[in-house]
Amino acid sequence: MVVFKYGAHIWIGHQRFPTVFSPYSGGSHPFYGRVHEALIHNGDFANYVAMVRFWDQFGGAPQFRTDTEMAAKAYAILKQMGYPQSHIFEAIAPTTGIDMQRLRKSRRELAADLENLQKTHIAGSPDGPWFFIIGDQDPATRNLKVIGLTDTSVLRPSIFV
């Protein structure tokens, strides 16, 4: 009998294999980003190939060819670039439509920053219905977070505890 002993401060998991890509591609969930983050995902990216091409220029070439892995790499690369958490979320799930119009009226400077960030990273932003749960640790403070993030159209709303 083999006994595995694991220790962690945050556990995340997902029980299904990929439905768009081969379930034999090396696994599905969770995927780690670099070192201090892991991500699980429910949904489908319509622009997976575009994301691969975009994030590959930052060292984010996928090994297992799943959209979950691509999302984890994108999150980790943005974090490594030094963006604040709110800007990382904006690069992944851009504020659009009436929300951006309201923001332009109330916080013009922030809206301009977010629009520039969107223009810079739009090719690496997932398109389609998706929801992420991210386990993240700040390496400097060792603070832990569990983050839920959904597409801006809320096509995959989710609840997690």
List keywords for this structure.
single chain, 161 residues, alpha+beta, four-stranded antiparallel sheet, 5 helices, 4 strands, globular
Mean pLDDT equals 80
What oligomeric arrangement do these chains adopt?
Answer: single chain
Major sheet description: 4 strands, antiparallel
> How do the helices and strands follow one another from N- to C-terminus?
EEHHHHHEE
Low-confidence stretches: none
- Count of helical regions: 5
Percent of residues in β-strands: 5-15%
Any idea what the shape is? globular
Q: What is the CA–CA distance across the termini?
A: 33 Å
Share of helix among residues?
25-40%
Supply the helix-strand structural class. alpha+beta
Report strand order across the widest sheet. Answer: 1-2-3-4
Rg over C-alpha atoms, rounded to the nearest angstrom: 16 Å
The total count of strands amounts to: 4
Can you describe what's shown?
This protein is an alpha+beta fold. The chain is built from 5 helices and 4 strands; from the N terminus they run ββαααααββ. The protein has a 4-stranded antiparallel sheet with strand order 1-2-3-4, covered by helices on one side. A hairpin with a 6-residue loop joins strand 3 and strand 4. Helix 2 packs antiparallel against helix 3 (85-92), helix 3 crosses helix 5 and helix 4 (97-106) packs across helix 5. The chain is globular, with a radius of gyration of 16 Å. The model has no long low-confidence stretch (mean pLDDT 80).
List the SSEs and their pairings.
Layout: E1 31-32, E2 37-43, H1 48-56, H2 67-80, H3 85-92, H4 97-106, H5 108-121, E3 130-137, E4 144-150
Antiparallel strand pairs: 1-2, 2-3, 3-4
Helix pairs in contact: 1-2, 2-3, 3-5, 4-5
